[in-house]
Amino acid sequence: MTARRDPPARSTAAPPRPAPAARGFVAAWNDLFFAPRDPRLASVLRIAYGVLLLINLAVIAPDVPLWFADSGILPADHAREIITEHAPTVLGWVDAAWWPWLCFAVLCAAAVLLTVGWHSRIQAIVVLLGLTWFQDRNYAIVDGEDTLFRLFAFYLALCPAGWAYSLDARRRRRRGGPDEPPVPWGLRLFQIQMSVIYLSSAIEKSLGHDWVAGTALYYVSRLDDAFGKFPVPAFLFENLTLLKLATWAVLALEWVLPVLLWLRPTRRAAIAVAIVFHLAIEYTMNLFLFHWLMILGILSFAEFAELRWPPWRRARDAAGAATETPHAS
Amino acid sequence: MTGHTPRWLVNVFLAGFLAVLAIDGFHDFGWTSLQGVVNLPLVVTGLWQGPWRLYAPDVDKDNLRFKAEITFADQTTTTWSSPDWTRLSAPGKFVRARHVNYLNHILQSGRELEWDDLCAYLARTTRHPAGRPAPVVQVTLFLRGARIPPPEQRRLPAGPYVAFDDWNTVHVWRPGT
């Protein structure tokens, strides 16, 4: 049953103002996405992302024919059977040995140009398309970090990633372009993405048995391909009580990080804990670049001034920021 | 200020994208029909992600090894083996990350087609041990596993569990099949 409402009275005066709750939502939305924020953080993320992407491509390079050519391990027509038919790829367009290499060269060039910030937005889109097409060509070698590489390229395309530390910034200064910093609302998408990852993973883990029972890390630490990167004290992985506590700690962390990273009083501590968490996994497990990408995503919760090193420069920057708007370096 | 893009357009994009992100990232909320709607545009644009499992809901409990016996026309045989991960250094595992993914994928999918592709690739690229020009007439794939016992059943020392079973034949490939 719906309540019948009287038609709104016509008025020639000012348009009706939204209800207080709606005003609160609009204000919160605007504050979240459009409040001024130093766009140089997006440039730092762009460079870090570019470096990780180039490492990824360098590792793949010797195996381009193996993974992506018809003479390799997965012919193009068979590759289509392990992924949805709509997944786009140009890798199967030309049946020639040089074609995957040409596509790979274009992707590498875009990665380099993104890293140095030459038409950053366009390069980020080319990287997104290139990664998508390569991943769709051979889905058998793809995992979570490849998804992160794609999504982060998209978010960088939405950020003013070339605002600082880039050839774009140099060109802008030469042309006397605007010095008013853009609002980097795309950075919020990095943050929301990170929250989605933790929350989605926490839900998935909580629906299973191993994480709730506390035995997940017992099994993980006995896997021969993923675990055992660097030496760790044996007693940590032989004591079932410690393993259970560590398992539950991981699960708890994935539940609470999506909240603590957003709250002003806990944000810095949550960033620190998350970075230590990912470094610890990076130390013990062989997960290629996944945890470095996660750390990159976590840094989107920091402010640019907090990333300055050494720390005593931050106080000086803060004093300077009080008197001037952020500018390109 | 949002650059050259009108604020209202950014807001429309954000509202739509965040809704799609939630639908795609969380599969356990019963919105299957909505996932069907957003899936195609996400796949085409390369923006799909799906739920983030990260060793969930349960951890794999098997360490596995592949071996292929390649038989040439003169009945000479040679063997290819998947890497022994416990013997590889950290950098060695790092550069073979895609190989780990590939082997895990074909083991989990269990598709004959992909095993055929692996066998065909081995047949094309494996050299005769004596350098003779004899073609490959058969590739036989073997698999063995080491299933990690539950901690309540048996307490294991730290480190990879490598008490492998015997080899099992999982696939036989011949040229033209």
**Helix/strand order of chain A, N-terminal first:** HHHHHHHHHHHHHHHH
User: What is the number of helices of chain A?
Assistant: 16
| Rg over alpha carbons of chain A | 24 Å
State the share of residues found in helices of chain A, binned by percent: 55-70%
Structural class of chain A: mainly alpha
Helical residue percent of chain B? 25-40%
Outline of this structure?
The complex is a heterodimer of chains A (329) and B (177). With 329 residues, chain A is mainly alpha-helical.
Which terms summarize this structure?
heterodimer; A: 329 residues; mainly alpha; 2 domains; 16 helices; globular; disordered C terminus; B: 177 residues; alpha+beta; 37% helix
What would you note in describing this structure?
The complex is a heterodimer of chains A (329) and B (177). Chain A is built from 16 helices and no strands. Chain A has 329 residues and is mainly α. Chain A has two domains: 149 residues, no CATH class; 102 residues, no CATH class. Chain B folds into two domains: 57 residues, no CATH class; 112 residues, no CATH class. Chain B is 37% helix and 19% strand. A four-stranded antiparallel beta sheet of chain B has the order 2-1-3-4. Chain B is extended and about 75 Å long.
